[in-house]
Design goal:
Blueprint lengths: L7 H7 L4 E5 L2 E4 L3 E5 L2 E4 L4 E3 L2 H16 L1
Antiparallel strand pairs: 1-2, 3-4, 4-5
Length: 69
Amino acid sequence: MYAERVSLGEMEKRLPPQFVRCHKSYIINITYVDSIVGSLIYMADGTQIVAGRKYLADVRKELLAFAQK
């Protein structure tokens, strides 16, 4: 395990493109998204994450782009 003290915004810049910010406190790996219903993101392991209004459009766009690959 590695510990590093950087902001989530800085971490987002360092991660590969399949990682998307979905909330002010969360970054998700788009490859593990099962579905999006309203503002709820359902992950492959059953986790439900509420997407922030500010980030929801970007998450949908990235999921669509990933699905088309």
